Write a sequence for this structure.
């Protein structure tokens, strides 16, 4: 029953988004269903993130072969920002990536990267859909129609030599981080935040250029970081958002029957992606522990110290949203209510 309800909500989502994103005066397409076969190009994440490799076959099945999708590794198209721009201008019709890969494009969705706010992918998913249904995610309507949201793996702190078990443990550490909020957090803790692509992390750890990294267990596994790291702190720093978007004109070219079939495929794929995220997390942790790393817990007292230490960053995030014309206070309030509800349900 829950899956049926979720699908109904998802279908409602896509048609309301099409209306809001300006696809014609009536807000939707008037494309006649003349039996046409549609061929679309989908820009995906790197090959080590296999979340969408089965999507073309699923869409072909759901649409009776009427929609055919070809996957393109994003690296062959340029940067993530380039690939998103190509989707908006119609060079490619579809785009799948982590929102964090295009800094500044999705400031409201960045709330799931606020440190020590959401603690698991399920909560991240609830936050994003709650924000959408309350009308706070119009940022995804810029010449595209969002077809699917899903959480990424959680970002965790992993270090060499000694565990991080107190605020003083951060002093002087050089730690790789990507998101701007995480960089601000580490620097406020007394660490030096070092931005670098994942491809450089192994050698940088091996040569002592950095002392640790903030990344997901999956990427630790894929990049064999268990060879050069010793400890993973079992207290996730932040989550992230994966999304699938489609060029607005390409979407509006579809007859309504194919829109429905496409959304059915997207909803099923969302469940698949969530399951893959959970599996890659488990596999990543298992591989890191097998490779010699220790997964360790921190005390409730240290957890509270971390929460207190990042409180100014949360206020800064809200202020930034308010300054950009969003209702940052309402967005944070809604997010905190969702987190409270999710944590209560987990008890």
């Amino acid at each position: 029953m829950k899956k049926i309800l979720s699908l109904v909500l998802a279908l409602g989502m896509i048609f309301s988004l099409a209306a809001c994103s300006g696809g014609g005066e009536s807000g939707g397409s008037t494309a006649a269903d003349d039996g046409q076969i549609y061929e679309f190009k989908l820009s995906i994440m790197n090959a080590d993130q296999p979340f969408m490799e089965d999507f073309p076959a699923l869409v072909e099945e759901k649409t009776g072969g009427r929609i055919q999708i070809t996957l393109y590794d994003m690296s062959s198209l340029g940067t993530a920002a380039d690939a998103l721009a190509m989707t908006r201008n119609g060079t490619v019709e579809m785009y799948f990536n982590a929102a964090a890969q295009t800094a500044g494009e999705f400031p409201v969705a960045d709330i799931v990267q606020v440190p020590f706010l959401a603690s698991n992918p399920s909560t991240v998913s609830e936050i994003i859909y709650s924000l959408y249904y309350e009308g706070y995610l119009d940022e995804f309507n810029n010449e595209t129609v969002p077809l699917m949201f899903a959480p990424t793996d959680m970002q965790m702190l992993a270090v060499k030599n000694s565990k991080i078990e107190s605020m003083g443990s951060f002093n002087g550490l050089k730690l790789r981080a990507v998101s701007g909020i995480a960089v601000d957090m580490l620097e406020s803790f007394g660490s030096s935040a070092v931005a670098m692509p994942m491809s450089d992390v192994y050698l940088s750890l091996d040569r002592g250029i950095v002392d640790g990294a903030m990344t997901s267990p999956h990427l630790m596994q894929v990049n064999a970081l268990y060879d050069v790291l010793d400890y993973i702190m079992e207290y996730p720093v932040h989550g992230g958002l994966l999304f699938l978007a489609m060029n607005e004109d390409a979407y509006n070219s579809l007859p309504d029957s194919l829109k429905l079939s496409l959304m059915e495929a997207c909803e099923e794929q969302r469940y698949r992606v969530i399951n893959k995220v959970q599996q890659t997390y488990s596999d990543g942790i298992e591989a890191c522990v097998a490779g010699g790393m220790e997964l360790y817990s921190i005390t409730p007292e240290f957890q509270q110290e971390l929460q207190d230490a990042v409180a100014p960053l949360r206020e800064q995030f809200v202020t930034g949203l308010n300054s950009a014309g969003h209702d940052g206070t309402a967005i944070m309030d809604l997010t905190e209510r969702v987190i409270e509800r999710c944590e209560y349900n987990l008890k």
